[in-house]
Specification:
- The complex is a heterodimer of chains A (about 375) and B (about 400).
- Chain A is an alpha/beta fold and about 375 residues long.
- Chain A has 2 domains: about 5-265, Spore Coat Polysaccharide Biosynthesis Protein SpsA, Chain A (Alpha-Beta Complex), CATH 3.90.550; about 280-365, 3 Solenoid (UDP N-Acetylglucosamine Acyltransferase, domain 1), CATH 2.160.10.10.
- Chain A is built from 9 helices and 28 strands.
- In chain A, strand 2 (about 30) and strand 3 (about 35) form a beta hairpin.
- In chain A, helix 3 crosses helix 6 (about 200-210).
- Chain A is elongated and about 65 Å long.
- By secondary structure, chain B is of the alpha/beta class.
- In chain B, about 20% of the residues lie in helices and about 30% in strands.
- Chain B has 8 helices and 32 strands.
- Classes of the chains: A alpha/beta (about 375), B alpha/beta (about 400).
- The interface between A and B is large, with 38 and 38 residues.
- Strand 14 of chain A pairs antiparallel with strand 18 (about 295) of chain B, so a sheet runs across the interface.
């Protein structure tokens, strides 16, 4: 069958997201006032005509499971295919019940039956769940087919961290070198977004596992780089990988820029989020609201500046919120002052409290905490 | 499969008094309160009251309404058995006809109701803004062993002549019904919400259809006929917010009521949520130079100008230097730089170009007797610096350049 099958990896890995991951996995971190990080990749896939998506999950996935539900929000609740949740515990026995995946190939090997039996499409797109991006994946597939590549790797010329993977491309776009943990990162940074033929993927996974190899970037991209046609697809549009509290804060605040919002939320490729039944936000006559993103259902009686408010946030009279990211149902009581704070869901800031983080070290309040 | 109670929602009306807004859509599909449409209120009330089978009777311009309701998923009315069903007039062996009146609309769908063999049928209309627990009304209907229960509310005595008035005895049994009485004996107004015992109602609908002189209307025919025949009819007193939004003024009023907690219309109340279908769009953005106060703003809005005492629906844009006050902006409306919108309703996707002025405050009106809300119908476009005086109505044929 023509088209792509989506596979999203949502398993625990090392990140610097600290308190934000106390109750969840990186893909279900709330972002942009109304979204979870994984909404972007799911929407990218759906907008490219992907009908079936499998999500390999392991770790603290309760919040992810709640969020994804049956996939209805992304139109992935289907009679055939649609969204398939692939929790690791159902497959761990295949690999002797190891706790954590050591790499993508191992994760794929755990769901090999799924790959063989349930992937109806000729191509597979592999993606991480921590990437905030709005990319036309159907164009990437066209390019992949036209170029006759074995694996197309989406990458960007925008530099990132040294632990990221970097590609060296020749003039034809072929990847001639793959490296990570570079002292001086150079080349094109991988966005860990790959397209390849389904049968090739299954062959590679079987081959790797037969040799006790588990890493996609080491055992496939590096070791097989000379045998396979690896192609770099350069995407220099907006792409934010959420990996630390600091970059979560910085990349979130970028969404206050209208050009970035226009690109990320372009109307021809909408980003779908779980529907809420919240009514509109109410701004009181005494309320003030400047340069901020405000989700529905908020009640703003105090002052909000340069901030992102999720659904149902309440800011009482005299309270001042500046440079903050307040998750769902945060309550900021009378005369409280918050500066550069990230408040997780259901946080309560009591009357008159003052909390100051810094834009270079935002203060994170764990879910449900009361100050 | 048997259901205890089925709701029949009358949504076929043209809403002629809202005409600039209802040129292309039925009244129940008119946007309300930022994220909703009028029909969301009765549909959500059904869901919250545990009624999972709803027939929506449509006739006038049903396309927008049909696609809005879809499979009923936003209201959890996508059910294996029951759920929401759109019921347009249809052709049968004996012929075909439009719905002649409210009673005839249900008469023509007796077959639909019979599919569920219900004990009771709730009859609702698609042009009221209110939150009501129909299951409590049904409890009253059962306890009183009534054949018909009519929801009523006390209205100010001076307004009573505008309503259908129920005169009741000490136990709230209805003894007399007067349509728009000049000298009302009671101030209990019918809210147009009825519960009938189905078999009884069925018989009256058939008898009414056979009466050639009948206008096939609940208020004019069925209710008086049942009362005359001595059927047990009781009133169910409702206290709370309720508004018929059949006129442009009342539609504007009801939107403004959202902004004052004292009105009783508190949509932030999560105990009785109202559901609706809204497009995917990012949260509202309120810019550096904006000034927003006493207003409701919905997702997708981009506000760079001044917004006071207004209701902004999903995806509304107010550009820098624009001023919006005491107005209702329906989804996708755009107010460009320097434009002023006061005491107005802007329909979906209207564009108020740079420097244009729509409406004015009552105190600024040249002739206070002629003041009123200015209304732009959906897809209207104004020219730059165009002036639309108070009480003016323009529709989409107006495309200023």
């Amino acid at each position: 069958m023509k088209g792509m099958h989506g596979i999203i990896f949502s398993y625990e890995k090392k990140t610097g997201l600290r308190e934000l991951l106390e109750h969840r996995i990186h893909g279900s971190v709330p972002i942009g006032g109304d979204y979870r990080v994984v909404d972007f990749m799911l929407s990218n896939m759906v907008n490219a005509g992907v009908q079936d998506v499998g999500i390999i999950m392991q770790g603290k996935c309760q919040s992810m499971l709640d969020h994804l539900s049956n996939g209805k929000s992304w139109d992935l609740s289907r009679k055939h295919g649609g969204l398939t949740l692939l929790p690791a515990f159902a497959y761990a026995e295949n690999r002797g019940g190891v706790g954590k995946f050591r790499g993508k190939v191992e994760a794929l090997a755990c769901v090999l039956d799924y790959l063989v039996e349930d992937v109806r499409q000729d191509y597979v797109v592999l993606a991480d769940s921590d990437l905030v991006i709005n990319i036309p994946l159907d164009d990437v597939l066209q390019d992949h087919i036209a170029a006759g590549a074995d694996i197309t790797c989406v990458c960007t010329s925008v530099p990132g961290e040294s632990s990221d993977t970097y590609f060296k491309l020749d003039d034809s776009g072929r990847i001639v070198d793959t490296a990570y943990d570079l002292y001086n990162p150079e080349g094109y940074r991988s966005l860990n977004l790959y397209i390849l033929a389904t049968d090739l993927l299954i062959r590679l996974v079987r081959d790797c596992m037969a040799h006790n190899q588990y890493s996609f970037r080491h055992n496939i991209l590096q070791e097989m780089g000379s045998k396979l046609q690896l192609r770099g697809y350069v995407w220099d549009g907006y792409a934010a990988r959420i990996s630390t509290v600091q970059n979560y804060y910085d990349r979130s605040m970028e969404l206050l820029q209208s050009d970035i919002r226009a690109e990320l939320f372009c109307p021809e490729r909408p980003i779908y989020a779980k529907e809420s039944d919240a009514c509109s936000t109410y701004v009181d006559p005494d309320g003030e609201c400047i340069n901020s993103l405000i989700a529905d259902g908020c009640d703003i009686q105090g002052s909000v500046k340069n901030s992102i408010l999720f659904r149902g946030v309440k800011v009482e009279k005299g309270a001042k919120v500046e440079g903050c990211i307040l998750f769902k149902n945060t309550v900021v009581k009378k005369d409280a002052v918050l500066h550069s704070v990230i408040a997780d869901k259901y946080v309560v800031i009591n009357e008159g409290r003052q909390l100051m983080g810094h834009e270079h070290y935002p203060l994170v309040l764990g879910r449900g905490s009361e100050v | 499969m048997k259901k205890e109670c089925v709701a029949m929602l009358l949504a076929g009306g043209q809403g002629s008094r809202l005409y600039v807004l209802t040129g292309d859509m039925a009244k129940p599909a008119v946007p309300f309160g930022g994220k909703f449409r009028i029909i969301d209120f009765p549909l959500s009330n059904c869901t919250n009251s545990g009624i999972d089978t709803v027939g929506v009777l449509t006739q006038y311009r049903p396309l927008e309404l049909n696609s809005y309701i879809g499979n009923g998923q936003p209201w959890e009315l996508d059910r294996m058995h029951g759920g929401v069903h759109i019921l347009p007039p249809y052709q049968s062996a004996t012929g075909a006809s439009w719905y002649k009146g409210t009673a005839n609309a249900i008469y023509q769908n007796i077959g639909f109701v019979d599919l569920y063999d219900p004990e009771y049928v709730v009859v609702l209309s698609g042009d009221h803004i209110y939150k009501m627990d129909y299951s409590d009304m049904l409890r009253r209907h059962k306890e009183a062993e009534a054949d018909c229960t009519i929801a009523v509310m006390e209205v100010p005595w001076d307004e009573a002549p505008r309503f259908g008035i129920m005169n009741v005895d000490g136990e709230d049994t209805i003894v007399e019904f007067e349509e728009k009485p000049k000298n009302p004996k009671s101030n209990l107004a019918s809210m147009g919400i009825y519960i009938f015992s189905w078999q009884k109602m069925r018989a009256y609908l058939i008898a009414d259809e056979n009466d050639e002189n009948s206008s096939n209307d609940f208020g004019k025919n069925i209710i008086p006929n049942m009362l005359a025949a001595g059927e047990k009819m009781v009133a169910y007193r409702f206290e709370g917010y309720w508004k018929d939004v059949g006129t442009l003024d009342s539609l504007w009023d009801a939107n403004m009521d959202m902004l004052s907690p004292a009105s009783g219309l508190n949509l932030l109340d999560r105990a009785w949520p109202i559901y609706g279908r809204t497009p995917s769009c990012p949260p509202a953005f309120v810019g550096e130079k904006s000034d927003v106060g006493n207003s409701a703003i919905a997702k997708g809005c981009v506000i760079e100008g001044e917004v006071k005492n207004s209701v902004l629906s999903v995806g509304v844009t107010v550009k820098e230097g624009a001023q919006v006050s005491y107005s209702v902006l329906m989804p996708g409306a755009v107010v460009e730089e320097g434009a002023v919108v006061q005491y107005a309703i802007l329909g979906e996707n209207t564009v108020v170009a740079k420097g244009a002025k729509v409406g004015c405050a009552p105190e600024c009106a040249e002739d206070p007797g002629k003041w009123g809300i200015a209304v732009l119908g959906p897809n209207t476009k104004l020219a730059e610096n165009e002036i639309v005086p108070a009480k003016t109505m323009l529709d989409k044929t107006h495309q200023g350049v």
